[in-house]
Amino acid sequence: MAPNVRVSNAFRAMAAIGIPEETVRPVLKNLLNLYDKNWEHIEEENYRALADAIFESQENKHLTQSSSSEDTAEQSQLLLRDKRAQHEVVSAEKHLRDKRKEPTTPRHPSRLERTEHPQLCPRDKTTEPGFVSPQTHCRGKQKEIVLSPQTCHSQEREELNRPCLRESGTEFGADSPQTQLKDKGKKPIPQIASREQISNSKRTSSALIKNHPYNALMKPKSEPFTDDIPHFEVPIAVIHPNDSCPSRNEGIQDGSEPMVFLNGNEKYENDGVSDIPNKSASSLELANISESSSADFEIASSPLGEVKISLNCNSALGRPDFHMPSLDAVLKMVEDKCLKSYKIINPDFSIMKLMKELCQCFLDVGTESTGEKGEGHTNVTPTLDSLKKSCIQNALGPKGSRVDNLNMPAGSLNCSLNFPSSAKDLKGSQSSNSRSLVVVHQKQFTLDDVRPLHDVADISKGEERVRIPLVNEISSEPYPPSFYYIPHNIVYQNAYINFSLARIGDEDCCSNCFGDCMSSSIPCACARETGGEFAYTLEGLVTKKFLDDCISMSHDPEKHNLFYCQDCPLERSKNEDLPDQCKGHLVRKFIKECWSKCGCNKQCGNRVVQRGITCNLQVFLTPHGKGWGLRTLEDLPRGAFVCEYVGEILTNTELYERNMRSTGNERHTYPVLLDADWGSEGVLKDEEALCLDATFYGNVARFINHRCFDANLVEIPVEIEAPDHHYYHIAFFTSRKVEALEELTWDYGIDFNDHDHPVKAFRCLCGSEGCRDVKHTHS
Ligand SMILES: C[S@@+](CC[C@H](N)C(=O)[O-])C[C@H]1O[C@@H](n2cnc3c(N)ncnc32)[C@H](O)[C@@H]1O
């Protein structure tokens, strides 16, 4: 083969994995020199040697920040000689093949085109809103993590690993146990994947990244770092363990002596750090694991269990070319190195997880050495909780009093790791033992602990078109539990929703309409789903017939169609090997609203739910023990839209994982299953079997209390953006005329007599004559 063809082929192969020609060129040149123009070595295994050399040269470039291309070339040559034969490299061809594999999903037939669901049967309440997936098995699998011995420079950093979130229709990577489950049985992940490659792929196609083997490497967006806390910089105690990870090193730390160096089980003093100002072992413990003379690795902990990791790279000192690298770049490089050098193929691997493991190890070892670990009432919390505690600390005044209006941005749980002198004022949350190591008493810190208080003038914080005030006229209970107010649903992580315009066929939109579709004498294509008639009246209310049908479905589900999945996602996630039979899903009526591909305007009468809340609502403390509730401040006619049920969109498996992790008092709302139209989709994949959870992220609907039978709201599925019927909006409409100041209620569909249900139902205080919580009503 002619050399120029071979060069082009090499460029093409590298381009396929996202490496530009200008990056390839100098490395290829060096490689050819090194291999004496022996192309076979370069071409074998899909240019493995070349890709390897490029990655290493780039890593090296990051490390030294050498701007000279000659330097880079020299470094690549050096690296090439030292190249490890065992490295595995992404197969360029495979990657290219994967990239081409865009999933295509056929348009789903409209409801009218579909065949009717034949089976009729009594309703099973476990399929109702209020049903929480009952899976309970635990999947706490320990990861194998190998620490890279290579030195690197980093400032101290913390990251709070909040749940990964993305706006509906956008994609963030997976970084969760769910991914493990989802990817179960799939091929191992190729071991070199830069974050750029991932995000490039992401831009190419969200559908692609969904199924992309690299998606497990993508991490939730990092929180801002806290990187300049001077009192962490000098160690109080220094540990030199034999291991790189402080595993079971039974070192003894003596809190009465602030400067204690530990080497394995040996203890010796070091005067060099004894005069650290403003330090006290009771407020801060710090271990320094010095692996080599070139780098120090420090871990600090506070009495609250907060842990800070710091890497000091001595070799950087005195180098004129050194500049502070971006932490993201450092983390990315370490992840890449770990993946390449140590062949870590756990799809969940991330350097932040490794750091957290490290913190956990640090605390484990620390508390183990006190001899107090293992008692049922104590627990050393991992970094996440520690950080949260730090936030609480910041939220408290000098004597532990709450500081109102803590200025913490919504959407951020991150906070700096400060150790205020009042740390000890947090009585009950922690204690120090005689050696000043910290034992944190088991306390479940929830969102309530870390979120700022609500804005009583508008609980939506300006997110809605109307203000939604909060009042408490009956007790001193100050605020409802904290949550993030979101006006629109947000995908938690793995839920698959495709909002692409290309998927909306001509029969699913009215591109030829203009102005208000309702003013036309002939209903447009968007009315097709509702039998050729709009579900809304000219006044914007749900039509009587449509509303009656929906209310009847809610009251007497057994009189309506239930669809039985052949392979029910709910049962599948309970027991993958031997799933139970589907318990049935109610086939509900849909409203289909006009949307962006339609020619009408935003004021079109067939756009009600998407315009958001328009009536005046108020969150209030209910008088009879139901907690907070929602009421209207104005009279509402029958069929009026009140609000949507907004929350995180989770897959059924994710909900199961969440339920497994949640503690009883953490759950404030009921997840709602979006199973109304599962029958139209054939066998649903887990990422298509969706539900909403408004516990942590939600809107005002999370305050709507349950009422058996005669609730004044009814929920109606509304299709807006996605013609795929596994995703729709849940909208609440009034089922009758509601007067100002009446509490708004909704029938959660709970079967209070189902004592086998994994989620214990609350004691119903709805007061309805037809209350289904018979045992409690009559006791
Ligand atoms: C979606 S939340 C409603 C808002 C809630 N009351 C609050 O204070 O945040 C559901 C929870 O409210 C309470 N709740 C709702 N309806 C109730 C009822 N009819 N009787 C008693 N408690 C009720 C239960 O604790 C339930 O778990």
From TrEMBL:
Keywords: Chromosome, Metal-binding, Nucleus, Transferase, Zinc
Every Pre-SET domain range: 509-612
Coiled coil: none
Stretches with biased composition (Basic and acidic residues): 86-127
Location(s) in or outside the cell: Chromosome; Nucleus
GO cellular component: chromosome; nucleus
UniProt lineage: Eukaryota, Viridiplantae, Streptophyta, Embryophyta, Tracheophyta
GO molecular function annotations of the record: histone methyltransferase activity; zinc ion binding
Keyword Zinc: yes
Primary location group: nucleus
InterPro entries (alphabetical): Pre-SET_dom (IPR007728), SET_dom (IPR001214), SET_dom_sf (IPR046341), SUVR4/1/2 (IPR025776), WIYLD_dom_sf (IPR043017), WIYLD_domain (IPR018848)
Protein name, per record: SET domain
Residues of the SET domain: 615-749
